[in-house]
Design goal:
It contains 4 helices and 9 strands. With about 170 residues, it is of the alpha/beta class. It has one domain: Glutaredoxin (3-Layer(aba) Sandwich). It has a 5-stranded mixed beta sheet with strand order 5-4-3-7-8. A two-stranded antiparallel ribbon has the order 1-2. Strand 4, helix 2 and strand 5 form a beta-alpha-beta unit.
């Protein structure tokens, strides 16, 4: 999967049983958030991302993809309700995290209105050594695309909890 090329389409069910296809969101900027109900890094990003989504309004859609095989649907649904996330797609057993080469929760991908992958990586520059964010990579990418430009930084190292791909 390469930046500047079409993002792989997928078809995933949400917690309500509705099917979501990436291609159905053409014409809008889409953020794919590979996510975990248990990861504190994902919870932090959920809180901060909500603020940005309110600013961006209807020009940006968020698709949260539950990526951990060890999290039950009930656990995912409870965390989604608590954090006000909709839709949350059930992706842990789908192969979609592997196709996108998602490594952590969160691991964020931004797809432009034409379906082209324009950003992948971390939400911001918070790491183990840097506890306070000084830059939001995701916000920078979305705002560049909204202004008709390519993101200045198209890829960063993701930071968060490792995705659990198989239940022991």
């Amino acid at each position: 999967m390469q930046l500047g090329h079409p993002a792989p389409d997928f078809s995933l069910l949400d917690l309500s049983g509705q099917i979501h296809r990436l291609n159905d969101y053409r014409g809008r900027i889409v953020i794919l958030n590979f996510w975990s109900a248990e990861c504190p890094h994902a919870a932090r990003v959920d809180r901060e991302l909500g603020t940005y989504l309110r600013e961006w309004g209807e020009r940006v859609d968020l698709l949260t993809v539950a990526a951990n095989a060890n999290e039950s649907q009930e656990q995912v649904a409870a965390a989604a309700r608590q954090r006000g996330l909709r839709p949350v797609l059930l992706g842990s057993r789908s192969g979609v995290p592997d196709e996108y080469e998602a490594q952590t929760t969160p691991h964020l991908f931004v797809v432009d209105a034409d379906g082209i992958l324009r950003y992948r990586g971390a939400f911001d520059d918070v790491t183990f050594r840097q506890r306070e964010a000084t830059r939001s990579y995701l916000k920078d990418a979305v705002e560049a695309l909204s202004a008709g430009r390519s993101p200045e930084q198209a890829e960063t190292a993701p930071y968060g909890c490792t995705i659990v791909r198989h239940v022991p």
